Amino acid sequence: MKIISGLLLLFPVIFAACRNNNTGNNVTVWLETPAPGDVRITDNFWSPKISLNRNTTIPYVFRQCEETGRIDNFAIAGGLKKGKHTGERYNDSDVFKIIEGACYSLMETPDPALRHYVDSLVTLIAAAQEDDGYLYTTRTIDPVNMAPGAGSERWTNERVSHELYNVGHMYEAAVAHYEATGSKAFLDVALKNTELVNNEFGWGKREIAPGHQEIEIGLIKLYKLTGDKRWLDLAQFFIDVRGRQSNYEHNPKGSRFEVYNDSIYFQMHKPVLEQTEAVGHAVRGAYMYTAMADLSEATGYNRYLLASQKIWDDVAGRKIYITGGIGSKEQGEAFGEPFELPNMTAYTETCASVANVFWNNRLYRASGEGKYLDVLERTLYNGLISGIGSDGCHFFYPNPLESDGSFERAGWFDCSCCPVNIARFMPALKQYIWSESGDGVNVNLFIGSEARLNTSAGEVFLKQTTDYPWKGEVRINVDPDTQGSTFKLRIRIPGWTGNEPIAGGLYRYKTPASKELGIKVNGKKMLPKNVKGFAVIERNWRKGDVVDISLPMEPRFITARKEVKADSGRVALGFGPMVYCLEEADNGKVREVRVDPETRVDIVYDDGNPSAAVTLVFEAEMPDGSVKKVRAIPYYYWANRGKGEMIVWMKRK
Predict the structure, then answer these.
(1) What residues does each domain of the chain span?
(2) What is the DSSP string of 552-592?
(3) Residue-wise pLDDT tens digits, 127-148
(4) Residue-wise pLDDT tens digits, 269-316
(5) Cα separation of 268 and 291, whole Å?
(6) What is the CATH number of domain 435-509+516-550?
């Protein structure tokens, strides 16, 4: 991460390109993420979604935060307004998350009015902060009549209170605000709070961890920005103390917080370095697994990374949906047992998909392995953007893979972590497209964009042009600053071009691909080596060089491992990185439709509808026994046309 200089006295933070693994086995390569200003998205698929987020979703979410009292809570806590606390104890975090999203948006598109509004919120937050740095509006407003779960005193009910979870999101927002504006106003609030938290928690102090992981990610971001190792040490403490503490208040059986008695729910059942399976609340877990990778990057101590990778193996091999969604159980919003992947009751929270992208990005940067990007991409195009409607202001909290017609999008939720998570994710998307590896540059995702990246041979300007995910043609223009620069261009070979639609072995294509991926440089066909899922081209690059990639985009039916009972005797339909579904709006009742996986599937392009530019048409047997053509749409696009049945996993004829 490149840091805006001149406004803070920053300590040097040096991250080596390669670090020896502390176990003495492998070498970990931490790929660099380009600075936000070095990448610009020009993509026909993503640009409208990012614009919708900027022009509709962010203002809408801010308005909802105003109307539901989330913002007033800060004004009341700061003595700027009279009133009582409104809403849940964790609502402070929603304001922090939407500020973070707004700041990422400001980095992409300057907006004086938005900047002024965000700064006004920072003023309210600063006013709400108590003299010693404490920030938790429900306690500050009225320490006697607090929101349920807040705890009778500070820090006494950390499994439930979300005190540390809230400020973790504040730390992330403060870093984004500083990077977007250069102002220290919000950063000073965050650092004042970290001083307090550091004084209260640690070995020999309060040896307890937060019930909802998040502060660890925020602390490491503060460490990277400021170089203050105390924040890194505190993040490591919060990770290491999990599974080791027992001095929590417990909630009585039958209370609304009964689930919080389950240590598995919090990933507190074992020390993190002993955990090998994904269990408990999916969002909390994925945030923790992300932080474990962050901790390895910052410390060079790779046992955290190896543990995170081990848990990933469990998820990718036994607990992930074809959409990239994770967390199958409504009870506890949790990971299920191995292969427990029901469709109608799939929970797959939108926040869990956002966290899954964070996690897989960290594991990719640590290893350079394309399999993590395969999961990231699958989640991105399916389980994540399904969480927001085409109007930008209706949302999913769960994302099931089957509906009986009762499921619909909502304009807001009492617990609205998902809308604000989507809003903060969209303007930060460009950080995932490219990466730098010292000896070259990497094409992670096929998203139309321009980037100025660093190599050991100097800087290079790259332009990616594509109609992906609707079409498989990608062109990359390579313009090095120095003629004849020798470096490697690595191009990801998506796993879906082979036999697996998503890494991990849980799903396979019913039929092999009929085409192969092709790469040309200046019109000449190339057969580059495949290294870790990337085609590697090393040459003397010159201005005007052009790389053309042809990805075999074709509809293919998918089957699940036999252990996945919910998908037994069923097939799903994929097209490139996308999962398709049948919806009642196009076909009538669809849950009992039967399909022959050998049937021909026609691709129908509708360039006038960028939200669902490709639909797939094929013959299927209807519930009444008749055979007719049915129309499948991208999964992420369903439930934008009213209530109705939907199905991803169709019965096999």
Answers:
(1) 18-432, 435-509+516-550, 555-652
(2) ---EEEEEE-TT-GGGTTEEEEEETTEEEEEEHHHHS--TT
(3) 999 999 999 999 999 999 999 9
(4) 999 999 999 999 999 999 999 999 999 999 999 999 999 999 999 999
(5) 15
(6) 2.60.420
